[in-house]
């Protein structure tokens, strides 16, 4: 049995919301078995929003959650860190409607989780194991899940820019590969788009310290952390958005030119297509045999 896990102790940080520009205090706290990841707005009486796809609210350049008109935005990087490091249950308490952007990657959240430590809980972890292909496309944007014995992600991007004509990467996702190869990849944007976003009240907290900004002739700020940092960040976003199914996935995720809208719509499609997957209590590649559960379920509420 792979036991569910939570944080060993609370830990906090402060930062700026990428789109709101607001200062944010964020606390990660332990939670009980089967409670999932929940975002708690301490500035609004402690109202909680479960991190499941049925609570997706806004997807304007980031993934947001909503419950009773209360929102939490830009959740994808933190969710990617949780699911990739094996944290099944936690309370994310914040005093503003947006998770801080930190340096534009998931690396700061990996650091926080490692500092907090993790502990096992008495309940078994349930993985969503893909049994047959599931796919979704919008125009030239495509995303699909195929059966596999482990989580693997293949992503390709293409933009009308000399730096980003095409990038593609395939990676088998483990805690180690996420920490070393995906978590440090930063969010990115084109200078002309950033200026337009600010005119519409977005990217107000964006800077060269928390995003890769691409001008007509190249990157405007520091050197890239990876030659293909752009597609690695897309993988990071996809992992965080797909975490909204409520269970770690065993399957091969393949996406082309995706974004938050496609990722979250696909997460919903996956849960709707309940004949295409089952819940198991251990990956097939683990030493112990997986236990097939008789009743399919959706994400924890």
Sum up the structure in keywords.
21% helix, 6 helices, disordered C terminus, 301 residues, Ribosomal Protein S5, domain 2, 5-stranded mixed beta sheet, alpha+beta
CATH superfamily of the largest domain: lpxc deacetylase, domain 2
Low-confidence segments, given as residue ranges, are 285-301
Question: Mean pLDDT score, rounded?
Answer: 90
Taking strands numbered 1, 2, ... along the chain, how are they ordered across the largest sheet? Answer: 2-3-8-4-5
The helix count comes to 6
Could you tell me the number of beta strands?
19
Envelope shape: globular
CATH topology term of the largest domain? lpxc deacetylase, domain 1
Class from secondary-structure proportions: alpha+beta
Tell me the Rg in angstroms: 18 Å
Give the proportion of residues in helices. Answer: 10-25%
How would you spell out the order of helices and strands?
EEEEEEEHEHEEEEEEHEHEHEEHE
CATH architecture of the largest domain: 2-Layer Sandwich
* Total domain count: 2
The main pleated sheet reads as:
5 strands, mixed
Give the percentage of residues in beta strands.
Answer: 25-35%
CATH class of the largest domain: Alpha Beta
Question: How far apart are the termini?
Answer: 23 Å
